[in-house]
Amino acid sequence: xxxxxxxxxxxxxxxxxxxxxxxxxxxxxxxxxxxxxxxxxxxxxxxxxx
Length: 50
Fold this sequence. Notes:
The protein has 50 residues and is mostly helical. It is built from two helices and no strands. It has helices spanning 8-35, 38-49. The chain starts with 7 loop residues before the first helix and ends with a helix. The relative contact order is 0.07.
């Protein structure tokens, strides 16, 4: 049975990249919420939740 080797440095970089991407998404979403009317964004949240 061959077990693939895991590059821990590459895995750590992927983890950091994923974390950075999540933070960027959150920042963009917060900005969108701030500039969008409550009626519009709450309607979209309602549609998302369902």
